[in-house]
Design brief:
The complex is a heterodimer of chains A (about 120) and B (about 110).
Chain A (H helix, E strand, L loop, with lengths): L2 E4 L3 E3 L5 E8 L8 E6 L5 E8 L4 E4 L8 E5 L4 E6 L8 E8 L7 E4 L3 E5 L2
Parallel strand pairs in A: 2-11
Antiparallel strand pairs in A: 1-3, 3-8, 4-5, 4-9, 5-6, 7-8, 9-10, 9-11
Chain B lengths: L3 E4 L2 E4 L5 E7 L7 E6 L6 E5 L3 E2 L7 E6 L2 E6 L9 E6 L7 E2 L3 E5 L1
Parallel strand pairs in B: 2-11
Antiparallel strand pairs in B: 1-3, 3-8, 4-5, 4-9, 5-6, 7-8, 9-10, 9-11
Classes of the chains: A mainly beta (about 120), B mainly beta (about 110).
Chain lengths: ~120, ~110
Amino acid sequence: EVQLVQSGAEVKKPGESVKISCKGSGYSFTNYWIGWVRQMPGKGLEWVGSIYPDDSDTSYSPSFQGQVSISVDKSISTAYLQWNRLKASDTAMYYCARRSDDYYYYMDVWGKGTTVTVSS
Amino acid sequence: DIQMTQSPSSLSVSVGDRVTITCRASQSVSTYLNWYQHKPGKAPKVLIYGASTLKSGVPSRFSGSGSGRDFTLTINSLQPEDFATYYCQQSYSSPSCSFGQGTKLEIK
């Protein structure tokens, strides 16, 4: 079964760092882009950025460039989303999703999401 | 950046209704337009890709149309399980992409 398994909920204070993960299984992890999508409380979906595990090629939304870092460890089929200095406004649900290899590049497999809560 | 604008942002509807949601791109995205359904506590799920292709396993009451800048998602004979939030997404600029702001279907 193709699946993405995300790490558990995080509760942090402003200024702290955190790294959440997304582990792929059931497919050739290195050959599919992995994207990260944010959903703030009561708000819609926003694309954060994506990474291609085979060569770590990365693309970020301008809204998130410089605010987060996306990385991958292909030896363990895991992608990461990291913050060095969290802000309260980073509080959200974060989903990872696989970009299909179909011509239209939709997100075909999603993780269940990781909640990040930033509060003093 | 390609901006996606959905309308309406919410819709109060009844079981059995026909629902139409529109999505407009700030520039042409050809048919690189996908529709997702998102329910609280669940991961989003793709319904339509390539503007009009129904994802395998998705009920045929869902359909999509459009090309260029203007797109439509139609749900015929709304079922109780269809109450959710729907998002369009352009993948024309993949790996970059962008979502519409969502349309929430609420029970009238």
